[in-house]
Amino acid sequence: MPTSTSEAKTRHQETTPSDPTATKSAVADLALNHGFDAVGFTDPGLSAAAREGLKGFLEAGYHGDMGWLATRAGERASPDALWPAAKSVIVLGKSYAPSTIPDPAQTDRHRGVISVYAQGADYHDVIKRNLKAFARALVARFGGEVKVFVDTAPVMEKPLGEAAGLGWQGKHTNLVSRRFGSWLFLAEIFTTLALPADTPEPDHCGRCRRCLDACPTQAFPAPHRLDARRCISYLTIEHKGHIAREFRVAIGNRIYGCDDCLAVCPWNKFAQASQELRFAPRPDVANPPLAEFVSLDDAGFRKRFAGSPIKRIGRDRFVRNVLIAIGNSGDPGLATNARALLNDASPLVRAMAVWALARLLPETEFAELYSTLEAIEADEAVLGEWRWAREVSRNATPP
Predict the structure, then answer these.
(1) Are the C-beta atoms of 150 and 6 separated by less than 8 Å?
(2) Is 1 helix (H, G, I), strand (E, B) or coil?
(3) Catalytic one among 37, 122, 151, 259?
(4) What is the mean pLDDT of each run of 10 residues along the chain (399 residues)?
(5) 325/335 Cα distance (integer angstroms)
């Protein structure tokens, strides 16, 4: 999922609850009253399995460009080292379940598909507001010190969520809840209050492997193991460079993220649509026409996605993604939109414009473009795209 900073520390005179169980129940009620849908409690530590899983993930290079995952791996594997004073972790969940489960078939190729979590307001902003209000109320009523985190700092949220009983990490590595399916945002409060830990949620996946089989790019080398370098969410959001050719056709018309492994989970049938209105799809973001999005300049992109998590990847990477979707559309009418970007300032954009045109134009028309523009292209990666596409287009539509 995306990264953002949201950390706060609040102090209050330390109090020792006379009845920790009653205090825990009162804290849970307080969390629910501050807009969260799920709450659990755990110790500030990780299981040996979670630590080994992180180690194996990093050693295999599955994190790709996400160097921040390795930078503070020691603290990530040991929440108690992140803040030694913490005695408990309150793990909070907020549902973003859609009213309709997305269809992995992606049938309308003229429109882009944006991941459910990014169709509404930026969840960092929404949850941060709830979390800080809850933290203030928690300290005012029960004392202690707290630190709050929303998808930030070296915190392994999903193993903590599992340990706190909110759900279990499915074979797709995401947290699955019996009540909310695969649609939970997570946040944590580290506190100096000693609160009884909940029982970890056991794995309820059984023999099911729908999430593994649904992945368009085979990003799961084994159950419970993700190679992010092959994941469409990683490629379209986290990856800053050119997307490898082997993944482009499989990306289809997904222009920001991918929900396929989440959407097919059978546990989603128990999830009710989120009651958080700010997570509702924005009309100008959900199911957008590709022709409309590919023409955005930087100013237009920033205006269109103000208040959206999409804004953080920047215009160039976003248009890169849209051009891949255009290349997969099968609609020669969109070639005009791609052609307009052959002289774009960004090599990311120019390269994918070349790829899209090689798939949409007749060989003779593409050859004319090649003879005109290949000679004046200075970027090696874009040149490589021109030459590869020209060679392949002579014989068949390139993959």
Answers:
(1) yes
(2) coil
(3) 151
(4) 38 58 96 97 92 93 90 84 93 95 79 95 94 96 92 86 97 97 96 96 96 97 97 97 97 96 95 94 89 96 96 97 97 97 98 97 94 92 94 66
(5) 12
In angstroms, rounded to a whole number, what is the distance separating the alpha carbons of residues 256 and 205?
27
User: Are the CB atoms for 169 and 156 separated by under 8 Å?
Assistant: no
Token pair for residue 79? 């929440």
Q: How far apart are alpha carbons 82 and 77 in whole angstroms?
A: 9
Per-domain residue ranges of the chain: 7-191, 210-393
Is the Cβ–Cβ distance between 38 and 71 less than 8 Å?
no
> Among 169, 196, 162, 142, which Cα is nearest to 38's?
162
Residue 263's contacts (CB-CB under 8 Å, 6 or more residues apart) are 101, 102, 103, 104, 182, 214
Our answer to whether residue 151 is catalytic in this structure is yes
Strand residues in 129-194 grouped as ranges (E): 146-149, 168-169, 175-176, 184-191
Using alpha carbons only, give the angle 29, 14, 44 rounded to the nearest 5 degrees.
Answer: 65
Task: Kindly report the pTM of this predicted structure.
Answer: 0.91
pLDDT at 167: 98
Tokens read off for 363: 């060989």
Rounded Cα distance, 171 and 53, in Å: 13
- CB-based contacts of 378: which residues, under 8 Å, 6+ apart? none
pLDDT for res 264: 96
Q: Where are the alpha helices (DSSP H) in 11-60?
A: 20-33, 48-59
The three-state secondary structure class of 195 is coil
HSE at residue 9, side-chain half, CA atoms within 13 A, is: 5
For residue 13, the model assigns a pLDDT of 45
